[in-house]
Structures are given as C-alpha cells and as structure tokens.
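Appendix B. Raw example, untouched.
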Amino acid sequence: MTDRLKIDYCGIEFRNPIVTASGTFGFGYEYDEYAPLSEYGGIGTKGLTRKPREGNKPPRIAETPSGVLNSVGLQNPGVDVFAEHIMPALSEQFDTHVIANMSGNTIEEYAEMAEILSGTDAAIIEMNISCPNVKHGGLAFGTDAAVVEELTREVKKRCKKPLVVKLSPNVTSVAEIARAAEAGGADGVSLINTLLGMKIDINTRRPILANNTGGLSGPAVRPVAVRMVHEVYNAVNIPIIGMGGAICAEDVIEFMLAGARLVALGTGLFMRPGMIFDIKQGLVDYMDKFNINNISEIVGKLELNQ
C-alpha cells in the first residue's frame, strides 16, 4: 500500500499525498497519540512569525454550519524558537516531512524568516500571504498580483528550500495570483486559505469574535476550494497543495482530480484526529476499483462536461 501512495512534490518524495494544514495541527505533538506522524506524507506546522505573538483576544473561535470561524491571530513562539528547539525535536522524534509555514508584515521580514527556516530540517517552506484574521500584513500581500510577484521573487533569493505560496480565496481571480507567484519563482502553491466571514450574536447585536471577522474553514468551504484548485491547475505549471474541508478519502480524491498533488487536512482533525487511517485505506480502495497503480495517476484527471 505504501508504494502505491507515494507521490513527488517539488522534487521531494512523500510517502502519501496527505499532509496537515497550518494552524490546525500545532507542531504535531498533540496528534501523535491519535495517529503516528509517520502515517502522514508530511505535516504543516503552526504559522510562524518573526517574533512571538500572543494572538488575538478571545473569543476567537465560533462554530458555524459545517465549519468553524477562527481569529486566533497567529499565536506562536516565533521563528527563532522553532528553528532552535521545535524543528530539531521534530526531526529527532518523528519520521515525516515538515512544511514550515511563515507569515510576515514586510518583504524583508518574510525573506529573513525564509533564510532562518532554510537552515533547518524543514522540507518545504510555505509562505502565507493570505491570513484574513490578522489586521495587517498578509491580507494586503495576497490580494495584489504585482505585490505577490515581487514578494515571491525577493523571498526566493534567500530561500534555499522549496518555496510554496499559500493563496487567499478572498480575491477576484485566484488564477491571476497563482500566476504571479509562479512568475516570482515559487516552487508550488497551496490553496485555499480560509474565507473571510462573520457570525453575529443576535441578542447582543455584536460579532461573536472579538476581532469581528475571522477565517471560515471546514466542509462548508470545500466546493469553493475544489473549484479554485481546478482553476489554478489550469493556470500554472507548478504543483498544488489543495486544502479546504477535506474530511474523507472521497474529498481527497476530488482535490487530486481537480489538480492537487498533496491534500491537507485541517478542521476535520478537530472532530476525528485519527481520520488518516480511513483516508489512506479509502485511497487504496479507490485505486483498486479503477485499476490505478499509483495515486499520482489521478492528479488533474477531471473531465469536464461538454
């Protein structure tokens, strides 16, 4: 089963196409008791910033139909702590690829973090240019194609690992932004980040989230995510990590047919932290049903209705 699920992403062999989405998996330690991290193709770390952040004040989580709104605000220990302590521990204790996620407020800050993370054992650096729950920085970068291209080009100069740009769905054309990232030298793209949303307490007439708005994730966003992955697949020649509401093997297969080579699990892990086992078996069952030798054979094989 293992060999049939192997897939290449940015020249790196992943034991299977299932990874975890940044912001939903901590640094992996919390989930190892439910499923060994080696069961995943790779894990995406909690988003890192140049300096430690306490995040936004609570309430910062609100449930919605088939999803969750969050405005955590990138609470994290900072990139130096990750590079000096967390990543070495991950390398020593767990056998899986690490995708280190970073967010910045300036081009120089992003470039500096990329340089620091390039000195670690992280397999891939994911650059978040699209965090809707932070009031400054990422959102402005992720919605302007010219800025995305410039940012990617400058960061790539100091990034010695594959650089994956995480795209915002809160744009007019996600394909245009993806093309800008590719033009700037990105090795891959990941999408979608959360959709910007709001939930109101009708009794107080105030937003439930202290930050007023937050990022919507979970199964509610999956049809949007699949559509955007398909659009980007047809717009660029770099590989895609698809994400947004995947909770079962069928969802993963949808994303891969639309064009994703890797698929990230996120909000669903809060409900079923051990879902990786069922998903992997479901992928094998699908390959058996359709006589598929390797999971990579289904990437981008969507056949549109005429």
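End of appendix B.
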